[in-house]
From TrEMBL:
InterPro entries: TPM_dom. PANTHER family: BLL7265 PROTEIN, UPF0603 PROTEIN YGCG. Residues 108-187 form the TPM domain. Pfam families: TPM_phosphatase (PF04536). This is TPM domain-containing protein. It comes from Desulfocurvibacter africanus subsp. africanus str. Walvis Bay. Keywords: Membrane, Transmembrane, Transmembrane helix. It comes from the Bacteria. The chain crosses the membrane at residues 46-65, 71-89.
Length: 217
């Protein structure tokens, strides 16, 4: 899969978003981090299902054209076509989405966001007040994950609202503007509950670009 995230933000926009995070954190002891991922899962089941359906269809069509009525010849065609179908799904991941349900997309993004939260150390802040903005390009979804301290201060509907607004802005092709708007809103919420501390330190990297470790996509 092409690096979608790399084309989502220019180098200048990346710097702008990082500056927005730094500015928001000046008014609070809480930490805000952004993770931009190409995808949240390799969706192996969808790859298998898609490759099987495509190769079965192509094998049946070829057998009909060639006039082959042998089941063994049909199975041979299927076996020969399957690797190509699998490669095609990997080369054009939009085809793979046809075999993935919305519920599966939601589940994988939530799981990947939770893993990223712990993987990047957001659970290690002194006051347990870090907030992760997780954007997954392939799934076109956004998740906000708040640590226990912040989560206790705001309802889940608040985080979902921020995520929804950001997702809509990104669909319009305004990634940097949307990210900065989300960060400013989160910074305002954090400042209300966690004002700056005299000994406050920037404990986390502001913008992280990468994808989960997967075997194939």
């Amino acid at each position: 899969m092409k690096n979608v995230v790399a084309s989502m933000l220019s180098e200048a926009e990346h710097g702008t978003v990082a500056a927005c995070v730094a500015e928001a954190e000046r008014d609070t002891s809480a930490e805000i981090a952004i993770v931009l991922a190409d995808h949240s899962s390799d969706y192996g089941r969808a790859s298998t299902a898609g490759a099987m359906s495509l190769s079965l269809f192509a094998a049946a069509l070829l057998a009909l054209i060639l006039g082959w009525d042998s089941m063994w010849l049909f199975l041979l065609l299927f076996a020969l076509l399957y690797p190509g179908a699998r490669f095609l799904l990997g080369r054009f991941p939009g085809l793979k989405r046809l075999y993935i349900t919305d519920a599966e997309l939601d589940e994988e993004v939530l799981e990947a966001a939770t893993v990223a939260f712990y993987e990047h150390g957001l659970s290690l802040t002194r006051e347990r007040n870090a907030v992760l903005v997780y954007v997954s390009a392939f799934e076109r979804r956004v998740r906000i994950v708040a640590d226990t301290g912040m989560a206790a201060k705001e309802k889940q509907a608040t985080w979902d609202s921020v995520a929804s607004e950001l997702a809509e802005t990104m669909r319009q092709g305004r990634a940097s503007q949307g990210l900065c708007a989300a960060v400013r809103r989160l910074g305002g919420l954090a400042a209300a509950h966690y004002p700056p501390r005299p000994d406050d330190l920037d404990e986390l990297q502001n913008v992280i670009i990468g994808s989960p470790k997967t075997n194939e996509f």
